[in-house]
Amino acid sequence: MRVLSEQRSKLRVSVTGGDVLGVREGEVDSWRGIPYAAPPVGDLRYRSPAPVVPWDGVRDATRFGAEAPQTLRRRLRGAPSSYASDEDCLSVNVQTPADVDGPLPVLVFIHGGGYSQGSSREFSGQGQSFVLCRRAVYVSFNYRLGPLGYLDFTRYSTPERPIESNLGLRDQVAVLRWVRDNIAGFGGDPDNVTVFGESAGGNAVVTLLATPSAEGLFARAIAQSAPPSAVYPPAQTGEWAAEFIQILRGLVPSPVPEDDHDLLVGARVSDLLNACLVLQVRTPDAYPGMFCLAPVIDGEFLPEHPMDAVRAGRAHRVPLIIGTNEREGSIFRGRVDILPRSPSRIDSLFTRAPAASRPRMRKAYPGLPGRRPAADFGGDYGFWYPSIRVADFHSAFAPVHVYRFDFAPRLLRLVGLDATHGVEMFALFDRMDVPLARAITSLGGSELYADAGERMREHWLTFAERGEVDGWPSYTERSRMTLIINDEDRIEEDPHRAQRRAWNLFLPEFGQTIRQLPV
Q1: Nearest alpha-carbon partner for 197 in 495, 14, 409, 424
Q2: At 323, phi and psi to the nearest 5?
Q3: Buried b (16+ CB within 10 A) or exposed e, 149-171
Q4: What phi-psi label fits residue 444: left (phi over 0), alpha (psi between -120 and 50 degrees) or beta?
Q5: Mapping DSSP to helix (H, G, I), strand (E, B) and coil, where does residue 163 land?
Q6: pLDDT digits (tens, 9 = 90+) for 235-283
Q7: What residues form DSSP beta bridges with 321?
Q8: Is 369 helix (H, G, I), strand (E, B) or coil?
Q9: pLDDT by residue (tens digit) across 477-504?
Q10: Nearest to 280 by CA among 171, 170, 200, 198
């Protein structure tokens, strides 16, 4: 009884808002569903995250909070299909080694999902593989998605009922502040925080580098498969907002409010999500190469494009790991067909590119717009090339390490997906038990796949501890040393040099200031 009492005492932690009681699960102590802001409902819809509402007594912290509202829930990463979603979704989770003897480095993970789906309930939100080694405290969280987090409705703001921009990004900053203020109580070091994320979460990491209010809230950053250029000026995001309003008017039940502001604030969540889905489906053909759910350069919270800030040295000068998978674009088919990989979308990009650059680009992707070269062209446009430019720019001001994940189990190679977008996640988080991970290794390769993830995880942990990685040279614009993660890792200098040089000519704006580009 005395042991249980001592254990319960260690699991009770005081945080902003009150006390929480977690649970011991083997060698890991977990706290889930802790509010890091007030529920963004009612008058707080479309507003910056407000301070936590205090509670009385001890709050149970053994269950995940509700995930953000989303239309297309992804079930590939272990989240149950029955899990609740709600506008009241701003919660954070913490995992630590049992009986932690801190302070330990802190890893804060931002989930992906195109800013339209995903949650901390997925296996990536449950960082046991990082915690069991007893070298880190792991934090995951939910943030607002879709029309409630990543469409810019500020043109409909009124003095009586303000609407603010970049709500999902503001949620991420609020979490980092919560970590700064509370993580010591869990055995974490608030001065040694590494923020990392994949896909949209990688975009968030790069954007946080350029967010002034995030200064000092993290010491290092890791961006996996990020689309860093997917941040847009208000003229573009305002155009998407206007289209959304038109779609929404056709979906809400009568009587439809005449005022656009009243329509937005009074709409049912289901109608907002359905209107957003229509907009998402339209965008890849109407605006090739763009993603309608993205941060906006609002001039205040996000004063400039992150790639501009990084290029000029105005971003937070923290050590960075950034990289992509070998064939990011091969998975983007069907309902996730969002990249410029169709003939018409590719033609649109070629029309916008300098005429002299077009032959070299076709030489870099022979057979374009055939299926395989089109997938690689679209993936490199969205993920690889802008990530390389971020590495080029940031390496002038802070240490940078660049990787490429090449390992693909035999089944993925046979079906032509290879090392596609997201494939590293099962290995990195040591979740080979997830049904999809079992499926893609059904023809062999599971041991090598897991080994590649273990090496990658070791790099991430070492980087979180020291800001450097053993045996992995720093990347500079002169050397471009890149870690290739495969069945056997190696270092390559300037991999895909021909494609990089073709993109330099094809997208000269990436060497200019992004904010000056035409919409």
Answers
A1: 424
A2: -175, 175
A3: bbbbbbebeeeeeebbbbbbbbb
A4: left
A5: coil
A6: 999 999 999 999 999 999 999 999 999 999 999 999 999 999 999 999 9
A7: 222, 401
A8: coil
A9: 999 999 999 999 999 999 999 999 999 9
A10: 200
The DSSP call for residue 296 is B
**CB hemisphere CA count around 30 (13 angstroms):** 20
Q: How far is CA 25 from CA 119, 230, 254, 428, 461, in A?
A: 21, 39, 51, 21, 22
Question: How far is 376 from 373, CA to CA, in rounded Å?
Answer: 5
Residue 273 identity (one-letter amino acid): L
DSSP strand pairing (23-25 vs 58-60): unpaired
The count of other CB atoms within 10 Å of the CB of residue 401 is: 24
Q: How far apart are the C-alpha atoms of 134 and 28, rounded to whole Å?
A: 9
Q: Is 484 helix (H, G, I), strand (E, B) or coil?
A: strand
- Structure-model confidence comparison of residues 503 and 84, the more confident one: 503
Kindly list the catalytic residues.
199, 328, 421
pTM higher than the cut 0.90: yes
**Residue 492 half-sphere exposure toward CB, CA atoms < 13 A:** 13
Q: Can you state the angle between helices 167-182 and 200-209, rounded to 10 degrees? A: 70
CB 321 within 8 A of CB 209: no
Contact yes or no for 311/210 (Cβ under 8 A): no
94: β partners:
31, 139
In angstroms, the first-to-last Cα distance of the chain is: 66
| Cα 31 to the center of its chain, rounded Å | 22
Q: Which two tokens stand for residue 227?
A: 């689309």
* Sheet of 18-21, strand order: 12-15, 18-21, 58-60
- 3-state percent breakdown (helix, strand, coil) of the chain, nearest 5: 40, 15, 45
Distance CA 430, CA 424 (A): 10
